[in-house]
Amino acid sequence: MSQLRLNPLTGRWVTVATGRVIRPDDFSRDRLAVETGPSRPCPFCPGHEESTPPALESYGKSGEWSLRVVPNRYPAFSGSDPMTVRNLGPVHTQAPASGIHEVFVFTRAHDDGWAELDDRQAGLVMAALGDRFAQHSRVGGIRYTQAVVNYGREAGASLVHPHGQLLGMPFVPGEIAEEEAGFRRFAGSCLLCTMAEAERDSTHRVVLDHDGVLVVCPYWSGAPYEMLVMPESHEGHISRCDQRSLVAVGRAVRDVLARLRDRVGDVAYNLVVHTLPHHHEDQFHWHIHVLPRIHSVGGFEQGTGVPINIVAPEQAAELLAS
User: Fold this and answer.
1) Which residues of the chain are under the pLDDT cut of 70?
2) Any idea of the CA torsion for 211, 213, 216, 218, to the nearest 10 degrees?
């Protein structure tokens, strides 16, 4: 069983999941991601479905899946124990890391990524995520679900075949709590709706504006070619977003990732979905962060939490929008 341990300096929880160290080639750094071969067939490719636990959800026609959701064999969060906090002395605090950890395999093609998906598949990915968030919201004890796609070894990918992860956890992580606080501070209107209006007016940082989805290199970008994907339809919970908006967001993500690949190169990136915690009804607007991993994070950034961005967002947007 994984553990949650509280960092008393920041008030944030840390997950200690030692079981994940047994993932294949977990500490390899000689490739962008762990490759497969004849002796180790890809568990996510068609025909190898028995290599994963039985699917929780499978999308497709005529018995041929287009997208599968399966339990993660090496979960960071698992079990249904209540989040009972224990104090082990004056400064050591822990709790069980109960929850859900799933993998969504979003294409049958081993060598394609989100940037190569066709319209139908790109839309299906987001529609399926909306379904899974709704399912997680009905599970007792799950307070927040994080969806991530790690592309490339530098971004944390351990297998080449395109996939993402869904992690349902028994607490609201600090990053989301801080974003919620940001929306509350911006009293009177929605922070992201106001930001979208300002970015459309200036145009300097707009990468894509199509079909009700705006993608910008945000004014406060902390990494080169960082992008923020915002659906025009105002909704705090991705699970309540209408299907048309979800499909449009999936296609917009596909388009901007293809531009990143074509203009900058086949760089590693993290894609993270931010939505309201389950059962919260605060002011919020769900969105997606695209975070390319182009340069290493140094000691200053880690020691202070202050990023140093070597490419101005205006320059990045000009290249990606062209």
Assistant:
1) 20-39
2) 160
